[in-house]
Amino acid sequence: MKPHRRKRLGIILFIAFGLSVAVGLTLYALSQNINMFFTPTQVAEGEVPDGQHFRIGGMVKDGSIVREDGTLSVNFVTTDFASEVPIHYVGILPDLFREGQGIVAEGIVDDRGVFQASKVLAKHDENYMSPEVKAALDASGASAENHMSLGEGGGR
Amino acid sequence: MNRLMAFLPVAAFLILAVVMWRGLYLDSKELPSMLIDKPMPAFELTTVDDVSVNNELLPKEPFLLNVWGSYCLPCLVEHPTFMRLKESGEIPIVGVNYRDQQQLALNWLEDNGNPFEFSILDESGRFGIDLGVYGAPETYLVDSNGVIRYRHVSVLDEQVWREVFEPAIAELRSEEAAR
Amino acid sequence: MLPELGHFALILALCLCMLLGVLPLVGAAKGDLRFMNLARPLVAGIFVFICLAYVLLTYSFAVDDFSVSYVQQHSNSLLPLRYKLTAVWGGHEGSFLLWTFMLSGWMLTVAFYSRSMPIEFVARVLAVLGLLCVGYLLFLLATSNPFDRTVPLPPADGADLNSALQDFGFIVHPPTLYMGYVGFSVVFAFAMAALLSGRLDAAWARWCRPWANVAWGILTLGIALGSWWAYYELGWGGWWAWDPVENPPLITWLFGTALIHSLAVTEKRGIFKSWTVMLAILAFAGSLLGTFITRSGLLTSVHAFATDPERGIFILGILTLSIGGSLLLYAIRAPLLRGRFGFGILSREMLLLVNNLILVVAAASVFLGTLFPMVYQAITDDLISIGPPYFNAIFVPLMSLLVLVLAIGPISRWKKTSGMYLVKQLGLVAIASVILGVLLPLLLTFEFSLSATLAVALAVWIVLAAMKDVHNKIANKKTIAAGLRSLTFSYYGMQLAHLGVAVIVIGAALTTIYSQEKSVLLGPGERTSLGAYEFEFIGAEAISGQNFRGVEVTIQVYHDGEFFKELHPERRLYIASGTPSTEMAIDAGFLRDLFVTLGEERGNDAWSMTIYVKPFVRWVWLGALMMLFAGFISAADRRYRRVAKVESTSSYMQEGDKNNSALVGEAN
User: CA A130, CA B99: separation in Å to the nearest integer?
Assistant: First the structure.
C-alpha cells in the first residue's frame, strides 16, 4: 500500500471507530432517559410497572385542589373523565395551573397510590379558547417557541 | 460505489420526511379523550332566561350541543350556520353558555339572533368540565338517548357541516331508524 | 384598503420571485448576460414589496385595525405601543412574514455586496434564494395570510398579545433568531450555486466565509437572547431546558459551527469540499426544520383533536423540495469534487476534522433526542419524552473533548505538525491550566469539586493557548503594537470566538455546579437564608399597569448581615386576556445573580416563593456576545473584499486545486 493510502485508511478507521463509540454511547444514554407517558386510566388499570418514573396527563379535577397551610404542599386530583389519580406536589405551581386545566406531571406513584410529582406543567393548548386563555389562541411560530415553554414554567 | 454513497443522504432524508409526515397526524393524547359514546353528564341548571333545565328536557331526537360564549369570536363565525339550521329545522341545537356572564349572553343572543332551543347557563364552567370542554366553540352530536356520539372542536362552518356533520347525522338517523 | 394593498404587495413579490427563480438560472446556463443582470433589480423589487407588506401589517397593528383577524387575535387597544409594533411576530402568520422579510433583506445585502464575485455566480445564488422565497410566499398566501379580514363584522377589540410575550425579550429574540436562521439560507444558496456551476474552489470558499460567519454570529446572539429571555421570564432559574423548540436552533448552530471551520479548510487547503457543501445543506436543513417543528405543531402542541395539518404539510413540502432537491443535486455533483488528501494524522486539517466530527455527532444526537419521541410514537403508539439528562450525558463529554481540541487547533500547522512541537508549545500551558483549574474553584468556595476543576482548567486552557499563539505570531515583530497590527481581522475574530467559548464554559459549568435554590413560604417579617444572603419578606401591595393589575412583593436582601438591596417580584393578571403571569425580580451581577420568583398567597399574607443564587450565569450570554462580534470582525477581513480577477473557466471543478496552492502559504 502506498503511504498516503495507508494514512487515509488510518484516518477512515479512526473516524469509524470514533463514530461507532459515539453512536453506542448516544443510544445507551437515550435508552436510559426515556420517560413514558400514561393517562389516569392506564395508571388505574395498573399498566405502570411499580416504581417507574413517568409522566401523567389529565385535567385537574374541579374542587380537588387542597393546599396545606404553612407549607408549599399541594394535593389535587387529575382525571381523564374515566379514572382519577391523586397527585401530591411540593413547590410552586405554574401560572396557568387551575381547576379544569390540562396538566402534565412527572414523578412516581408511592405505596398509597398517590402520584408524587417532582414537576408539574400546565399545558397551553392552541385550541383552548375559554375566556382566560383565548389570547393564547393560535400562538405558534415565534411565539410557540416561548409560548410552550412558558406553559411549562414553574414546578422546578 | 462512491457515487451510490452520495445518494445515501437523499435516501435518509426521504425516510425522515415520511416519518415527519406521519408525525403530523399523530395524536398526542396528552389530554384525556372525552365522553364519546357515553351519556351526557347529569345536570340540573337553568337556561340563560332563568328557566330550570335538566337532562329530561333535552330533545328526544339527535341534536347538536354547542358550547358558546359572548367573548368567543369564532362563535360569531359559526353562528350563521346555526341560524340557517334553525330556520330550515334540520336538527335542533342546544346551547351551553360557557364561562360567560348572563347579561352579556342575553345581549349577544339579542344582537346576533338565537339559534338555540335553549342555552344552558354555565357561568362557573362546572358543567363544561363535566363535559370535558376545552373552550368555546365546541359542538357535540348527541343521539336520542342522550349519548354523545361525536365531538367537534372549534368552528363549525358550512364546510364542516357538509363534510362532517351531515354524513354523521344521516348515519345516526338511519342507525336509529333501523333499531 | 391598506391590508388589501399589503396582500397585493405579497402577490407582486411572489411574481417577481418566480421570475428571479428562473431567468437568472437560464441566463447563467446559457451565458446570457441580460438575463443574469436581471437578478439584482428583481431582488430590489422583491425587497420593496415584501417590506411594504411588512410595514402595512405593522401599521394595521399601530392603528388597532381589528378588522384584520391576525391583528384582532394578537393585539388589543390597551396594549402598549411597543408591543403593538412587535406583536406583528406574535403569531404564526406575522412571524412568517417577518421570516420572509428577513430573507428578502439578506437577498438585498447579497445583491449589494457581491461586486467581487462573477455575475454568473451571483445570478445563481440570487436565483436559488428567489426559489426559496417563492416557497415561503406561496405558503404565506395559501395557508397563512396575515391580511385576512374578519367576516362578517369587525370586532370591537382584540384578544390581546399573549401576556407571556409582553416583554423586552419578545421584542429582540425572534427577529435576531430569524435573521441568523435565514442567514444560513444565503450560505446554502452559495453551496447550491457552486454545485450548479461545478465551481467549488478556494475562491468560492472565500466568497462564502463572511456570510457564514455573520449568519453564525447573529444566530449565536439569537439563541443567547432566547436563553436569556427564558431565564428571566420563565422563572425556573435555568438558562437552557433542552426543550423541543429550543433544540432546532442549537442543531443549526452546531452544523453552522462545523461549517465555518470546514469552510476555513476549503479556503486554505482546497479540501473537504463536498463535506463543506454537505454542512451548508445541513445547517440550512436545521433552520427549516426549526420552523417546521414550531409551526406544524409536530412536537409541541397537544393534538387531542385533529387540527388542520395543512400548514405542516405545506412546510414539509417546502422542506422536501428544497432539502431533498439539494441533496439530490449533491448526490449527482459532489462525487466530481475531489480534493487531494494531503495531510497527516497530526495536522490542523485533522484537528478541524475532529472538530467537525464532534459537532456533527452533537448535532445528530440533539436531533435524535428531539425527534425520537415522535418516531417512537409512530412505531409503538406509546408516548414518551426524552429528559434533559440524555442531552447532558451526550453534550458535556462531547463539548469537553471539543474544547480540548479547540485550543490545539490554532497553534498547530497545516499539513503536518509534529507531536514534539505541540508538546513544546502547549506543555506549560497544559500544566498551568491544571494548576489554575484546581486553585481557582478552591479560592471561590474552599471546596474541591472535580467538575468545576475540569471546567475551569478547560477554560484556562483555551485562554492561555490563545495567548501563546498570539505571542508566537508577534514575537519576531519590532513592537507589540506592530505585531498586533500585523494580525488579520479574521484571526482576531477566530480568537475572540474561542475566548467566547471559554467564557461560556465557565458560565455554564459554574452556574450548574454552584447554583443554590430553595422554595419557601414567608410571612411578613420572616427571613430565610441562602448561601451568603438573607432574604426578608416585607410585604405585598397591589399595583396596576396599562393593561394589567397585580401584586408586588418587597423583599430585602442582606449580604453577610448588611442590608444589600430590595427586590420586587410581581404577579400580574392581564386584563384583556385574563392570563396570569409572574415577573421575577433579578439582581444581576457579573459574578452572580440573585433571583426571586413569586408563587401564590397562602393565607395570613404569607407568600410562597423560590429564591435562587446563580453564580456566573451572565457569562453564558457574555460568551455568546463575544461570538457575535467575532463573526462580524472576521467577516470584515480585508481579503474578503478583494475583487477577484474574473477567470472565465480556468478554475472549474478539478482545476480548483491550482488556486489553492497559491493560498496555502497565506497566514490565516
Answer: 7
Cβ pair B31:C323 closer than 8 A: no
Predicted local confidence at residue C195, as pLDDT? 93
Query: Into how many domains does chain B fold?
Result: 1
Q: Find all residues with CB under 8 Å of C1, minimum gap 6, and list them.
A: none
Q: What is the pLDDT of residue C13?
A: 97
Helix (H) or strand (E) holding B112: helix B102-112
pTM exceeding 0.80: yes
| pLDDT tens figures, B118-128 | 999 988 777 87
Please state which of the ranges B76-80, C107-111, C186-190, C452-456 shows the lowest mean pLDDT: B76-80
Domain ranges across chain A: 1-34, 36-151
May I ask the CATH class of domain A36-151?
Answer: mainly beta
Task: Indicate whether B81 belongs to any domain.
Answer: yes
In this complex, is the C-beta atom of A99 within 8 Å of any C-beta atom belonging to chain B? Answer: yes
Q: Minimal Cα distance from B41: which residue of A?
A: A81
What is the rounded (10 degree) CA torsion for B83, B89, B92, B94?
20
Distance from the C598 Cα atom to the nearest Cα atom in chain A, whole angstroms: 8
Cβ-defined contact of B134 to A57 (cutoff 8 Å):
no
Residue B31 within a domain: no
300-329 in chain C: CB under 8 A from chain B: 301-307, 309, 312-313, 316, 319-320, 323-324, 327-328
Q: Which of B26, B31, B66, B76 to mutate to test the interface with A (most CBs of A within 10 A)?
A: B31
Q: What is the CATH number of the domain that holds B92?
A: 3.40.30.10
> Per the CB < 8 Å rule, is C161 touching A135?
yes
A102-112 tens-digit pLDDT: 788 889 998 88
3-state helix, strand, coil in chain A (%, to 5): 35, 30, 40
Chain B CA closest to residue C367: B16
Cα–Cα distance, B36 to B142 (Å, whole number): 10
Identify which has the larger pLDDT, C647 or B114.
B114
Q: Judge contact between A30 and C369, C-beta under 8 A.
A: yes
Interface contact C374-B2, CB threshold 8 A: no
Asked whether the bond before B137 is cis by omega within 30 degrees of 0, the reply is yes
Long-range contacts of C429-437 (CB under 8 A, 24+ apart): C429/C461, C429/C464, C429/C465, C429/C468, C430/C461, C432/C460, C432/C464, C433/C457, C433/C458, C433/C460, C433/C461, C433/C464, C436/C460
Domain, as residue range, for B104: 36-178
| Closest Cα in chain B to A78 | B32
Which residue in C has a C-alpha nearest to residue B29's C-alpha?
A: C304
CA C11 to CA A16: how far, in whole Å? Answer: 50
Chains linked to A by 3 or more Cβ pairs within 8 Å: B, C
Chain C nearest-CA distance from B146, in A, is 22
Mean pLDDT across A124-149: 31
Inter-chain Cβ pairs, chain A and chain B, closer than 8 A: 70
Is B9 within the bounds of a domain?
A: no
Asked if the Cβ–Cβ distance from B33 to C72 is below 8 Å, we say no
pLDDT of residue C235: 67
